[in-house]
Amino acid sequence: MANLDWPSGLRPLNNGTAGTAPRVTMYTRSNTAVLYEGALLVQLTSGPGVYTGTTAAHAYQIVGVAANYHGASDTDVYVYDDPAQEFLVQGDSAVATPLLKVGWMGPVTAVTGNTTTLQSKSELDTSALTATYAAFDCLQIVRQWHADDNDQDAANAKWVVKITDKAHILSNTSTRAT
Length: 178
Description:
Layout: E1 11-12, E2 24-28, E3 40-44, E4 47-50, E5 62-66, E6 76-80, E7 87-90, E8 105-106, E9 108-109, E10 123-124, E11 139-144, E12 158-163
Antiparallel strand pairs: 1-7, 2-6, 3-4, 3-5, 5-6, 7-12, 8-11, 9-10, 11-12
């Protein structure tokens, strides 16, 4: 069965702490980047900004995932920033022996968001999965997503992931709103 190709960024699932609701923190920013819901965000000097995937430094500056759409004039940004948070994300291609890929890491495809749904179109770059951490690896596979409409052996399969420990920078709280 073919999986529906509908990338929508990183969608939060209940985090691992007793099934509690995802944590959302408000950050303040001065940059004017449009942030699509589900987009991976990095910590810039001007506050949370879009992960572009063009520099390895970005993979070490991730603050979390945009909790909703933020226009260019929005100064308050709501971010899923719990390091234990799990997300559902679509892979961009088929994965050989997917059961063996749990624990592996991979980068995110950084693309412009959907201007109609206001959601990110980022996906897990499954063609670049590695068993050892590489420069651009931001996500780690926690488990397969078990659903009747998700063929794990086909392209566009859904995965449950976490932001890698090396990528998450919660210790930098300089732009958190107080």
